[in-house]
């Protein structure tokens, strides 16, 4: 059962439309579906809302810290409401997947993602769910893929066709997330990973 869905991103209008904020876009979609409005919660270092989704009460969280400090928000809310790591889903941008791809997994490494690295450190475990939202990689566009280029890539808005593909991937993830929320993880992964 999922009790907390966290979307990763950077706060501020200048980052709103950037690839790094794909996790925020998922939270915005869930909040619209539930008719919920995430509000500033200082004690949770982010915008939070209790939403009724798929017949379950689920917390939605957008950390207001920068990406590499996301763990503070996650652990604050999770501890307060006694939510275990395996009841947490973190939605984040994933450069190892093309724009429009979306994958669900539990546990694993951070893959160089500073948000995941910080969350794993704060929770003292990597054993939480991740929804990996593909945003593409600069090397796929003929770039070298070095560190500076990667940073510039995730902090820029996707091209129009990439944005459309990312939006469609977020839409496609809704039905599988409803299964995950009910504790049907295998079915959720099968449905999401076989969807085209």
TrEMBL record:
Question: What EC number(s) are associated with this protein in UniProt?
Answer: 3.1.1.29
Question: At what residues does the UniProt record annotate the site feature described as Discriminates between blocked and unblocked aminoacyl-tRNA?
Answer: 10
Instruction: Name the top EC class.
Output: hydrolase
Where tRNA binds, per the record, is at 15, 66, 68, 114
Q: Where is the active site?
A: 20
Q: According to the lineage, what is the superkingdom?
A: Bacteria
Q: Which Pfam families match?
A: Pept_tRNA_hydro
**Oligomer and partners:** Monomer.
Protein name, UniProt field? Peptidyl-tRNA hydrolase
């Amino acid at each position: 059962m999922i009790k907390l869905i966290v979307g990763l991103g950077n706060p501020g209008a200048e980052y709103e439309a950037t690839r790094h904020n794909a996790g925020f876009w998922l939270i915005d979609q869930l909040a619209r579906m539930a008719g919920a409005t995430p509000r500033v919660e200082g004690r949770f270092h982010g915008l939070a809302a209790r939403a009724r989704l798929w017949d379950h009460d689920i917390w939605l969280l957008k950390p207001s810290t920068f990406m590499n400090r996301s763990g503070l928000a996650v652990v604050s809310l999770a501890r307060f409401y006694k939510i275990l790591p395996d009841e947490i889903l973190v939605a984040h941008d994933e450069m190892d997947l093309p724009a429009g791809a979306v994958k669900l997994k539990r546990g694993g490494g951070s893959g160089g993602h500073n948000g995941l690295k910080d969350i794993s450190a704060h929770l003292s475990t990597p054993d939480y769910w991740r929804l990996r939202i593909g945003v593409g990689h600069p090397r796929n566009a003929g770039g070298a893929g070095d560190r500076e280029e990667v940073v510039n890539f995730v902090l820029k808005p996707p091209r129009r066709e990439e944005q459309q593909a990312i939006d469609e991937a977020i839409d496609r993830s809704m039905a599988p997330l409803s299964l995950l929320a009910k504790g049907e993880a295998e079915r959720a992964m099968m449905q999401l990973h076989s969807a085209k």
